[in-house]
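agent> Task received from the user: take the single chain below, predict its 3D structure, and emit structure tokens. No templates, no multimer pairing.
agent> Plan: (1) validate residues, (2) run structure prediction, (3) serialize to tokens, (4) report one or two observations.
agent> Step 1 OK, no nonstandard residues flagged.
tool_call: predict_structure(input=
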Amino acid sequence: MDQDTLSPAAPETLPFEAALAELEQIVQRMEDGQLPLEESLAAYRRGADLLRRCQGLLDTAGQQIQILEQGVLRDFDSPDATGSR
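)
tool_result: status=success, residues=85
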């Protein structure tokens, strides 16, 4: 298969900004409607992986946010401390 770039980095190694930028590029390419079916499927799978990476990083960041409650700065506690949603 002819590729314009080297093999992409594993999504779990990408920082948020890089994963999001690549995801945006994939969406643009797919919206253009010029990809053959096989490439569209590969782009969809890659996009899904990147989306999971971005969501995971956002979830982690949300858990690390501190909030101000009645004048006291404390760690953010998720509504469900067990981790299930």
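agent> Step 4: summary for the user.
The longest strand covers residues 66-69.
agent> Done.
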